[in-house]
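User: Could you walk me through two proteins back to back? I'd like the raw sequence and the structure tokens for each, with a short line separating them so I can tell where one ends and the next begins.

Assistant: Of course. Protein one, sequence then structure:
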Amino acid sequence: MLRYTISRLLGAIPTILVIITLAFLLLHAAPGGPFDSQKKIPPEIKASIERKYHLDEPLHKQYLRYLVGILQGDFGPSYQYRGTTVNDIIKQGFPIDIIIGAAALLGALLIGLPIGIISALRRDSAWDHGSMAFSMIGISIPVFVIAPLFILIFAIKFHWLPAGGWDKGSWREALLPAAALSAPYIAYVARLMRGSMVEVLNSQFILMARAKGIPQHLIILRHALKPALMPLVSFLGPAIAGVITGSIVIETIFALPGIGRSFVDAALNRDYTLVLGVTILYGVLIVLFNLLADLTYSVLDPRVRY
């Protein structure tokens, strides 16, 4: 497994390099620049600014300079937020995204897994049809509808939780954003778990365990749960990266200072370095969590060997 892990990590280097290259070329190919604005800048001042940030150099030199900076752990200065580096922006916003994303993912697993398992055990029952119907509703309703609804109910009507903001970083400030972000993931987890569990419960080895007189709860815990988790693990690989990097909708509605809003603002203002920094971060997270999902297969299913 160690050899497989090392080979996957080495194989991820070309993938990340392609991501960096494509993002770099597409950003520079877009019309406009980081210092273009409605107010006309004198040519000599604009030339001085571009010379300071090496934007007057040929494109290939800018690309090589940026790659060298990445290897040194430096994503460069932000063109939009003067006097601030991309590293500072990521360090400031990424912990908030981790807290919200981890809470949302934990809630999705704690709620979605039991719903899916019970639905599989009570197949074609009222619980099964009702829970799967609510799951479809959770998938269909967008987050920008769920989030204001939560604010209206829990913040405005009952005054149980704050409507937004991130002053102290307490659990009260994180609960509503995490709940809104986790709602569609609860639905996905429940439906995936239900379908996978139904398939596993109809397998030959489960029928053999029942024939031996093993109690139902032991069959579920010892024999059915691990193989039923396999499709869910495949889903959770990119899903974890998605919830951790946050949602621009959630950050906007709840006024959270995460990197999602900074990323969109940077894209609109041609803040090349900030867009590239967040893109690289997102790509690395997807690669790492997909690798972690692949390694988890061997734990869940002893037949999987690398």
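----
Protein two, same layout:
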Amino acid sequence: MVCETTKTRDPLLPDRMQQTDFFVCDIFDAAPKGDMASMEHPIFSISTKPDLRRRRYENSSGTQFVEVRPSDRGLATVHDRDILIFCISQVMAAINEGRKVERTMRFKAFDLLSATNRPTGGEAYIRLKDAFERLSGTRIQTNITTGGQEVLDDFGLIDRFRIVRETREGRMQEVEVQLSDWVYNAIQHREVLTISRDYFRLRKPLERRLYEIARKHCGTKPQWRIGLEKLKYKCGSHSTDKEFKRLVSKIVAENEAHRHMPDYDIGLDGNVVVFISKGSVPSRTPDDSVNIPPLHPDTYEDARNEAAGWDVRMIEQEWRGWCAKEEIEPKRPDAHFLKFCRSWFEKRGRPA
């Protein structure tokens, strides 16, 4: 049953982006984009209080891990993530226009606040400075395997920030940010997804995290299901199972009343959460796969061994179309294609 306050209170923040001069700068034309890695893993805290807990996540075999360490200011929050979304969006827009990009970028604080639907009063600049400090202080450590060697990597979300100009009242006017290699590499490899501008209007940190997970895993599929226990883990929630279910149930009820969640509806089937696409995320076509570079000539010979009897050029078209539909930009296209060929043959065998 939907409570009375759920019926009357709009769960979305006011749309502060509707301003007469909102699109004067090219900066506002950039589609918001988030990196896939932090959509997949709970890098950012959903707590509304300073989160000083160290987090560690491992894969099922325990061979790979991601550890997130806070500074004394606490972990970077889901709302702090707005800064990264803004920066990623600007760099991607420049790349798509063929402009030269760098890890260090400069912009007006007012533009960042406006583009992410934040208030632009004096208090907003203080909160923005706090967000920069949490982003620069949060450290991530992970082990990755490349070429048969395990590499331990330690990095921050941003390498540094600098307030270039400040008004007499203490408001920052221009800010310089240097993105970390981790974030910049995600941009260079186009491991990003476009998100709805209404993401910035979601009030609750958990709502934002649920949207990120849906955008990453549901994508353009009709629906996607996940158990509450696993969803809680992916959200990085420290609530009890009972409390987490209550929080999700409240969001489900509010969305039933207002349908305010961008791109996806959300339902609860026992202990399974169901994300249902509203059809507002544009479907990608095989033409969108042009960012996957041409395969090495030797790869086709290897592919013929993996999918004996099949036309590997035809399989390549299927693979590129599938990558586009699933919004996958493989880091090692040749190896990814060969794995696709292997799976293709295992499912279908030799052609008749």
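The first helix runs from residue 4 to 8.

Let me know if you want the two compared in more detail.
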